[in-house]
TrEMBL record:
<protein>
    <submittedName>
        <fullName>Fasciclin domain-containing protein</fullName>
    </submittedName>
</protein>
<feature type="domain" description="FAS1">
    <location>
        <begin position="28"/>
        <end position="165"/>
    </location>
</feature>
<dbReference type="Pfam" id="PF02469">
    <property type="entry name" value="Fasciclin"/>
</dbReference>
<dbReference type="InterPro" id="IPR000782">
    <property type="entry name" value="FAS1_domain"/>
</dbReference>
<dbReference type="InterPro" id="IPR036378">
    <property type="entry name" value="FAS1_dom_sf"/>
</dbReference>
<dbReference type="GO" id="GO:0005615">
    <property type="term" value="C:extracellular space"/>
</dbReference>
<dbReference type="InterPro" id="IPR050904">
    <property type="entry name" value="Adhesion/Biosynth-related"/>
</dbReference>
<feature type="domain" description="FAS1">
    <location>
        <begin position="170"/>
        <end position="318"/>
    </location>
</feature>
């Protein structure tokens, strides 16, 4: 229904022409369509105004623009256009450049497969999934749902996003962990276990990264206590926090059956249990449980994309049943 509303609204906007006000015949171009739908897109329009990308999206293109709606900006911490207006220009430039593709990409016509690599107009990588869940055809980008796709403008297409996509900042998982102050215990553990190089290479991994508080809950009171732990013990623990391949949280929602529960094989050969979280009729996330954990583990930060994988931060250390 939400997709149908977006299509109707943008169709009406595209039909509104004023040849006097738009002598360059650009009334149906992407920048105009966004500006004419401020009820849904005022925050993204403010980003375009602040960064000067309005001029680019008024050009010939063609472009495919991934437009987070206002609810997506609210989820990202921007309550309204005024909050966007006071954000750093550098941050806004990074955001908007990651939401523009060269050419017309009809995302619902891509092959039915997971995490197909596309490149933004600025040269950054993103990953598109096209899949069927029950009776719904779903398109996601970096694990974020596309609410409405292939909305036509004169110079390209608009895809409406459920969240503001986070630009790829770190070249490697190793760099991303080192840069996150909530993961300093993990970073030291990786150094002590001689695993930093592994997460800095070309092999792709997904890491379920225990936060600093997760280490404290497990009995590591300080970084010194991590350093004092045998590298072999740390390596055994850390191999249960990662697996090869790139996996976003929504990938589990798309692949889990009616039991709402699945198993994920980890690098040490053991499994963890992944359970879907449902709010009303919508799946909104997952919880995790290691074979040695007595309770569920929550994902507190998800879908951090790096050049060689994906990072999810969790609130407890995954444990193997001994």
């Amino acid at each position: 229904m939400k997709r149908a509303i977006y299509i109707a609204m943008l169709f009406l906007a595209a039909c509104k022409k004023d040849d006097t006000a738009q002598p360059d015949n650009s009334a149906n171009r992407i920048s105009y369509v966004i500006a004419d739908n401020l009820f849904n897109f005022s925050s993204f329009n403010t980003v375009l105004e602040r960064t000067g990308y309005i001029k680019k999206l008024s050009g010939d293109g063609p472009f495919t623009v991934l437009v987070p709606d206002n609810n997506a900006f609210i989820k990202a911490g921007y309550a309204n256009s005024d909050a966007v207006r006071i954000e750093s220009g550098t941050v806004l430039n990074n955001i908007v450049s990651y939401h523009i593709l060269s050419g017309t990409w009809e995302l619902n016509k891509l092959p039915y497969t997971f995490n197909q690599e596309l490149t933004t107009d600025a040269g950054a990588k993103m990953y598109v999934t096209h899949w069927v869940k029950n009776a719904d055809t779903v398109v996601t980008i970096n694990g974020t749902r596309v609410l409405a796709y292939n909305l036509a403008a004169e110079n390209g297409l608009i895809q409406v996003m459920d969240a503001v996509l986070q630009p790829l900042v770190n070249a490697s998982l190793s760099d991303a962990i080192a840069a996150d102050t909530a993961l300093t215990f993990l970073n030291v553990a990786l150094q002590q276990a001689d695993m930093k190089t592994m997460l800095a290479g070309s092999d792709v991994y997904t890491v379920l990264a225990p936060s600093n508080n997760a280490f404290r809950k497990m009995g590591y009171s300080s970084i010194d206590s991590v350093n004092a732990t045998s590298p072999a013990i740390l390596k055994d623990m850390l191999y249960y926090t990662m697996f090869q391949g790139r996996k976003f949280i929504y990938d589990y929602i798309l692949t889990t059956d009616a039991t709402d529960k699945s198993q994920q094989s980890m690098l040490n050969g053991n499994n963890i249990t992944v359970r879907l979280i449902k709010t009303g009729v919508q799946y909104t996330g997952v919880t995790l449980q290691g074979s040695g954990n007595t309770g569920t583990i929550n994902v507190i930060k998800s879908n951090v994309l790096t050049g060689n994988g994906v990072l999810h931060t969790i609130d407890q250390v995954l444990r193997v049943n001994q």
